[in-house]
Amino acid sequence: MNTDAHPSHSMLRQREQCIPRGVVNAHPIVISHARGSEVFDADGQRYLDFVGGIGVLNVGHNHPRVVAAVQAQAERISHMSFQVAAYPGYIELASQLAQLVGGDNAYQSVLFTSGAEAVENAIKIARSHTGRPNVIAFRGGFHGRTLLGTTLTGMSQPYRQNFGPFAPAIHHVSYPDALRGVSSEDVLAELDTLFATEVVPDQVAAILIEPVQGDGGFLPAPVAFMQALRDLTDRHGIVLIADEIQTGFGRTGKMFGFEHSNIQPDLVTVAKSLGGGLPISGVVGRTEIMQAPAPGGLGGTYGGSALSCAAALAVLDIFADEQLLERGIAMGKRLETGLRRLQAKHPVIAEVRGQGPMLAIEFLKGPRVTPEDAALVQQVIDHCREAGLLVIKCGVYRNVIRFLAPLTTSDQQTDEALEILANALSNATH
Known about the structure:
Cofactor: pyridoxal 5'-phosphate
Pfam family, one: Aminotran_3
EC number: 2.6.1.19
Structural class: alpha/beta
Keywords: Aminotransferase, Pyridoxal phosphate, Transferase
InterPro entries: 4NH2But_aminotransferase_bac, Aminotrans_3, Aminotrans_3_PPA_site, Class-III_PLP-dep_AT, PyrdxlP-dep_Trfase, PyrdxlP-dep_Trfase_major, PyrdxlP-dep_Trfase_small
């Protein structure tokens, strides 16, 4: 029997003994239960969760309809493996995703377990379709911790350090970043240089892009840039892959981030909030591209598990029935207004940016030409946690605080979070 007055302390000590340092916790707490936008630790402390499992819980923690769907599915089939025999949930979810992404166009879906799996399989599909080896990704992008995912990721620390040699035929270019003076035109010129000096376009299978960079700092790709990429890939027969693992399912105010640019990607990777807390991912793409791999070339033992499919179908119903896109937009506007008020008061906030309810604030030590302030960011995060708000950082320099609150977050909870953040900023800057 645990007699520790603070059960979290003993569990964290055990964590240090049995879990390697390569797996980190952003916050030194142990969560016991959660509901909606609130979580509670093993000591009974309540927190507003503006991390949402790193963008996994757009419908909130333990949404009753997700819980009910999983319970009902567990009584029928907990696991079958789609590679052995089909089951209704996988088929229905694949159909709904194909319609959501492709609209009236012919699209198909294949399901996996993790976001990294989805990205890797999207690359496999693109290479199989084109017969080309090379892939272009963007600096600051994040695409998973597998070998290929790490290679595609455009950040050295901690994702690539000491893990090489990396997968071949992967190239990186800059991502548009107005704060640092990197324009869409600059990046397109980089692509032209890449084609002239490293790899010709007819040897490029795919260009992989996050419509809003997630771990890289919540940088939205300009509409004109996304449209230019679509034109470029069309010209050269390159597969355009939109990595919507973090941006999908209402996070940007639309069901998918690419919709803001009025383009149609060839392949879309999905995960995170699709499952409402359960692990599931997928690749959704044009039928003629998806059909390229031979039978048996795609799949996975747990891919599209029956339990996760049930959860995902419930999530899609929640979006339709509870007007979650509209609720997310309203919450995002309220949060952005509050963040801009804080920016006006605190010059260390160099930029408030994002799209819809996918928002972040970047910290610099002074004017825009001065260094990033990662230390201050960590102080703010720690002060927030001590006052009952969970947030995490991002950005290549880890000087950005990102907000991934469930789209179900109430006005009262949003205002409470802003008040905690305001106090944390005051404490950290004085």
